[in-house]
Amino acid sequence: MIALLNSSFQMEHSLLQNLKQINKTKKTNFLNNVERVPYCKTKFVFPMLTRKIRLLRRISKAVETVCKWNGMIFTIMEFRIFKNRRLKMRKKIVNSLITATVIGSMLTGMAVPCFAGGKKDGGSSITVLVESGSPAEALANNTAADFEKETGCKVVVDAVAYTGMYDKLSTEIKAGQAAHDVSCMDFVWLAAFADAIEPITDADTSDFLPTLEESGTIDGNLLGYPMWVNAKILIYRKDLIPEDKVPKTWDEYKALAKEMKTDDMYGTTVFGSGSDAVCSFLDFACQAGADGLVYDKDGNVNITDQPYVDALDFMVEMANEDCTPSDSLATASTESQELFNNGKVAMQLNWSHQYPAAVEALGADKVGCAPMIAGSAGVGATTGPWYECVMKNSENKDMALKYVEYMYDHNADYMNGTLKIAGRTSVYEEAGKEAGNEHTTAVLDTLNEKQSQPRPMISTWSQVEQVLTGVVESCLGGADVKETLESAKEEIEAIGK
User: How far apart, in whole angstroms, are the C-alpha atoms of residue 341 and residue 419?
Assistant: First the structure.
């Protein structure tokens, strides 16, 4: 507070020097339209400025000063000072009427930058955080007008790149700001932000896709409504691979990859780069029998268990075959898809949303899809759900809840987006009946398998993921699998949850 007042004092001189000039150009009858604040309250609102006002002798008209900073508009105040010129020999009396309408903090408006998403105008709007360029941004913009028409509440869409969303949320939450009423979140962030999210009560979860209620719940509290979920499936060239030869197991997959290798085409790819490498590693661990990813049901780090050893061994084996590109360490989802779309790969284990993109690139007659392949424990995959959450700091939580419910009711609209993925079983089932949406059936079949499971919901996941990325990269580079996993286990235990 002291710092704010000191900053405001520095700005007062400039403000007061310009009052006359402002008065000439900003004539208004503002006082007729806003609430009047008694003079005595100015001592609490702006004590230093009040003392300066007493020094003014010749200001006779009202002025309005507007401060704009970072997109927020603050109407600071209007002064009207009356002077009795006939009482020249008496003590001069200055009567001040200070009128203020404040959107956000008045002191903040004078002394420091304002943050987007500050105090709302009477609860007439909500701000929604979405990933820029995602289906969430498109749907939020497309439904904003209808939601406002239905509720009278304006929707302000704040689109931020994925790489900046976590940091933005973290900064705002630590500062106690109500910058966003609703936030779209990758489920791996939920644990980190759980205390800042308003739990959803009495939600009907019967239409949630498999695993989505579990992955969205912490300490018995459902933290949001699912937007969509993604998982890897098998995408293949159906003009080159007959339906009866579509692989269902590790052995069949490896054998077919070798068979499809030509001078111009690889059989398949191996993801060895970034988070995609980690997800592939965990996919294979699921298929090999992992019971809980990275942590077992008792909370112990389990990456040295046999399923993880088998998973890494399989990845290393595939990467060393000549049926896969030699630069696996530089290959992830995007690179694999480019190879496939350019006719350089016969099949791939990639995220389901890559199927519509492949059909568009190559034609429906050349692209097929199937559920994820199976290891010794069966079919399984890691899941990648997103949720829409109401933030506890929201000043309009009732309307924010109406909004996330409204978007859940419109979940089928996500199928109109480029990814063609959603969060409701009924949406997947209905979409799968239409040509071009075959991937939804493959995803649903994969999610219904008992070995499909989410990544661990821990607040330190970003750090753990970095360790696991190093594990995959090291082993693909020739490091001993067991020794690498043992070392990584110690690192993850030191990080904690």
Answer: 16
Contact 425, 208 (CB under 8 A): yes
Task: Please indicate, yes or no, whether residues 303 and 359 belong to a single structural domain of this protein.
Answer: yes
Report pLDDT digits (tens) over 315-348: 999 999 999 999 999 999 999 999 999 999 999 9
Q: Helix, strand, or coil here: 140?
A: helix
Three-state helix/strand/coil letters over 376-428: CCEECCEECCEEEEEECCCCCHHHHHHHHHHHHHCHHHHHHCCCCCCCEHHHH
Q: Do 262 and 193 sit in the same domain of this protein? A: no
Both tokens of residue 160?
A: 């931020």
* Residue range 53-63, pLDDT digits in tens: 343 333 333 33
**What is the pTM assigned to this prediction?**
0.72
Number of domains in the chain: 3
Q: What single letter denotes the amino acid at residue 487?
A: S
- 8 A C-beta contact, residue 164 and residue 447: no
Whichever domain contains 133, its CATH number is 3.40.190.10
Angle, to 10 degrees, between the axis of helix 306-320 and the axis of helix 274-288?
120
The token pair that represents 362 in the structure block: 């190559």
72 & 9 share domain: yes
**Residue 353 belongs to a domain:** yes
Closest CA to 294 of 32, 491, 157: 491
Question: Domain of 161?
Answer: 125-227+386-411
**Domain annotation covers residue 279:** yes
| Eight-state DSSP code of residue 12 | H
Residues 178, 414, 182: CA angle, nearest 5 degrees: 5
Q: Are 226 and 212 in contact (CB under 8 A)?
A: yes
Query: Looking at residues 96-125, what average pLDDT do you find?
Result: 41
